[in-house]
Write a structure and sequence with these properties.
The chain contains six helices and ten strands, in the order E-E-E-E-H-E-E-H-E-H-H-H-E-E-H-E. By secondary structure, the protein is an alpha+beta fold. The radius of gyration is 24 Å and the shape is elongated. The two termini are about 35 Å apart. Belongs to the gas vesicle GvpF/GvpL family.
Length: about 250
């Protein structure tokens, strides 16, 4: 029988609190105890797991997210770590934490009592089509290529694609001005990420005070009511501050 080598899976960093017992997780059919690896007032939440690569399938990613959600309910200073980081030993994680501590010490007051929420805004098919239909340049180019073969209308089709892309960029700018910047003013920090896919017009993350979550939700709801005939809102969270923390996980020479 092959010996199973153990590794240490890490979930997040926290500032040590009064109640830092987080119970068990179930990973690939086995229950595993969550424990802390500490340095001064900082800690990394970890679990002992088989030393291997964990694939980001739905079950594994959900497990990671559930652990972070559980920790966020008990601790108001959570520094997220992305899925799938496994180290060879507790000693390696201790070295990592000691190396990261200057960054953690700076981050703790910045993210204490804060959480991230996400907002993705996607244009409704009928509304997008109406925008293209009403655009004079797109209308003329579409008429030009309508009865021509693909080869004969090659350059017109390139122009049509370019005009359509400009239209989408114009709508993205409009949503950025009217939705993103409006919500940015109500947040501690905001980040506009690149939209995903042809119909997405806004892909944003906001860092907000936990005690102002209800106020921020109301602001999102008002904007949704204003835009609901044209776009779909996908509002998510609360999350740890993924978009506002940039930590590189490296075990360097002590």
């Amino acid at each position: 029988m092959e010996q199973e080598y153990k590794g240490i899976y890490i979930f997040c960093g926290i500032q040590k609190g009064k109640n830092d017992e987080f119970g068990e997780i179930e990973l690939e059919g086995e229950k595993r105890e969550l424990f802390l690896i500490t340095f001064q007032d900082a800690a990394i939440v970890a679990a002992e797991v088989p030393m291997k690569i964990f694939h980001p399938n739905k079950e594994n990613v959900m497990m990671h997210q559930k652990v972070l959600s559980r920790i966020m309910k008990q601790n108001d200073t959570v520094i997220p770590v992305s899925f799938g980081n496994v180290f060879q030993s507790k000693e390696d994680v201790e070295v990592l934490l000691e190396n990261l501590y200057p960054q953690f010490k700076k981050l703790f007051p910045e993210i204490k009592g804060k959480m991230e929420v996400g907002l993705k805004v996607t244009g409704k098919k009928e509304w997008l089509e109406s925008q293209f239909h009403d655009d004079e340049q797109i209308g003329k180019l579409a008429e030009t290529v309508r009865d021509k073969s693909e080869a004969a209308s090659y350059y017109e089709r390139i122009q049509l694609g370019g005009a359509a892309q400009k239209m989408i960029q114009s709508l993205q700018n409009k949503l950025k001005q009217e939705v993103f910047h409006s919500l940015k003013d109500s947040s501690v920090a905001a980040k506009a990420n690149d939209p995903i896919g042809e119909k997405m017009l806004l892909n944003a993350a906001f860092l907000i005070d936990r005690n102002k979550e209800e106020e921020f939700d109301c602001h999102v709801n008002k904007l949704h009511d204003k835009w609901e005939d044209k776009v779909d809102f996908a509002y998510s969270g609360p999350w740890p501050a993924y978009n506002f923390v940039n930590i590189k996980l490296k075990v360097e020479e002590a």
